[in-house]
Every structure is written in C-alpha cells, then in structure tokens.
Amino acid sequence: MRILGIETSCDETGIAVYDDTAGLLSHELYSQVKLHADYGGVVPELASRDHVRKIIPLIEKALSDANTQPNELDGVAFTQGPGLVGALLVGSSVGRSLAYAWGVPAVGVHHMEGHLLAPMLEDNAPEFPFIALLVSGGHSMLVKVEGIGSYEVLGESIDDAAGEAFDKTAKLLGLDYPGGPLLAKLAEKGEPGHYKFPRPMTDRPGLDFSFSGLKTFAANTIRAADDNKQTKANIAYAFQEAVIDTLIIKCKRALKQTGMKRLVIAGGVSANTMLRAQMKTLMDDLRGEVFYPNLAYCTDNGAMIAYAGMQRLKAGEVLGLSSQAKPRWPLDTLAPV
Ligand code: KG4
Ligand code: ZN
Fold first, then answer.
1. Structure confidence by residue, pLDDT tens digits, 258-283
2. Which ligand ends up closest to the CA of 271?
3. Is 4 in the pocket of ligand 1 (CB under 6 A)?
4. Domain at 2-116+297-333: CATH architecture
5. Which of 75, 128, 258, 330 has a 20 to 30 A CA-CA distance from 94?
6. Could you tell me if the CB of 11 is within 6 A of ligand 1?
7. What is the pTM of this model?
8. CATH classification code of 128-292
C-alpha cells in the first residue's frame, strides 16, 4: 500500500509518500519561518496563504521523487487537526479533493498522533505499550500508549507548551523566531550555576505541566541582568536546564506510576540535544529505553502524517466527503486501531 501524506497545521508545508513495504519514498518540507520572522510569531492568515502557494508544487515534487503516479496511490492522508484552522483547511481541502479525483480513500490524521508515531519510521521502532512525552510548540503532554489510537492522557500543560516557553524566552533574550533551537544553541555557551530557575509543579503530585511561570521568571532575570553575551548564555542555560529537569521529573513519575520501561519523546522540542542526553541517562538508570524520531521528523513534517494515515487506512478508516478541519481535537477521543 502506498499513501500521500500532507501536513499544514501551522507554519510548515510537509508532503511525503510512504509505502508500507518499501518505507518512506519521498519527503518534502517547506518552512515559512522567514515569512513570520518579522512578526515574532506565526501570523495565521499569512500561513494559510503560503500553504496555498506551496502545496501543489510540493505534492508534484514528492510524487516525482517517489517515482509514483497518482494511480499507484491507495490513499491520501492529511492533518485534520489540531492546529490553525485556515492552515488546516488548505491541507484538508487539497487532500480531500485529490483523493476524490484519484478515486482513493482520504484519511484525517490527528497532528499529535503523527508526532507520537514518528519514531515508528526508524529501524529500532518502539514496541507497545510505552509512555510518550509529546513536547511541541502547541502541546506538552504525557500519554500512556497501549497501541495505535489507545491513548490515555496522563498529564498536560495547563498554560504554555514547552516549545512555546522556549520561543517566548528566546524572544526575551533577543533571539529570532522560532527561538527554541537558537536558545538551545546559546545555552551551549552558558555556564551552570549562575542562575536557578524554578521547576514548576514538581513539588506536588500529578503529571500536569505549567511553563508560563518560567517565561515570567526569565523576563525578571533578564531585566535585572547586564546585557553581556555570556550573561545571556548563562540565563539560556538555566532556563533550558529547568525545562529539562521538569520534564525528567514528570517522565520518571509517569513511568513509575504505570510500571512502564519504554519512553518515546516526540514533537519539536525532542530535537533538543541536552534533553536527549539527559533522558538517555535517566532511562539507563531505570534500565529502560528511550526512543526518538529521526531529527528530520521531530518538528512538523509530512512523513509522520503519511505513516499515521497508513495505519488508520489499513484499519479501514475512511473520511466522508463532508469532513471538517478540527482546530481543537482532544487526543484521547481517537478510536483505537
Ligand atoms: O512540533 P513542532 O514542529 O510544531 C508544533 O506542532 O508545535 O514544534 C515546534 C517547537 C517550537 O516551539 C520550537 O522552538 C521547538 O519546537 N524546538 C526546540 C528545538 N527545536 C525545535 N526547542 C528546544 N530545542 C530545540 N532544539
Ligand atoms: Zn507539531
């Protein structure tokens, strides 16, 4: 079976062709980062318009790179939600129309299920069950995963997502949008021990997160500090250390609570080098295993949507012609496959 995957939930147009025997045949990505940089964040209307401009040429390129004709496809998967409604509408309208024109089924994919299953594209894919830590720009959650579609959300952020906290703190440090990776780079030059940020919500039971206080703490710290480059690096280091420590404490708790030994970390923030190193140490200590997507599939992409769509298509899931984009769509309402 071969499928076209389309991702347009935010500021990346991602297209991929995935085959269940040959694997990933092509993968195209266009990032709108430059378009939104002047505004310091994603402007939804500009995002939608840019998806409209890029989506068809990228689909043509993905099909050509995969040496695939439309009549060789068995389905079209697209991100149906959650995300920016205008951006989602571009991918769903194009995906739904192509499926109709090509006479193949369409499948609507949950963006976070895409992130969660992205490590399955790797050679050493995790076996079920596992705990998933999903950390992106829009979501932070801990999920107990029994199988595809069997998701129990154990905890989530009550305010900012982890990636959002990275981006906002980066902005306060004068870094460009999206600041997460730039803050991580600056933190590499930072020295430990100069600043101590709080580890929010770790002093009470439960698996929810709260990251907005860290951004306020960062704002106050930056205001009181000098404008030196090393000082900024030290602040970036302390901020990143606090986010990672908090995530580690919560993962440890979730693993203990469920008795699980496998941890999957996905979403944009899972690209963070320090996070990866420290989670590896944690899982070595616990005699467990940690799994990540390939760096190319940590942030938004079409490959994860094609993969998740393939699983649902194989299970017989097909979207009707009147399907809608779902800007809000709780992960635990998905049907098990
Ligand atoms: O999953 P993603 O591409 O988009 C959403 O679904 O939201 O995640 C993007 C987020 C951004 O907030 C970005 O700053 C963050 O992931 N991010 C990072 C790193 N790379 C991307 N945060 C920390 N360290 C990184 N290396
Ligand atoms: Zn995402």
1. 999 999 999 999 999 999 999 999 99
2. 1
3. no
4. 2-Layer Sandwich (3.30)
5. 330
6. no
7. 0.97
8. 3.30.420.40
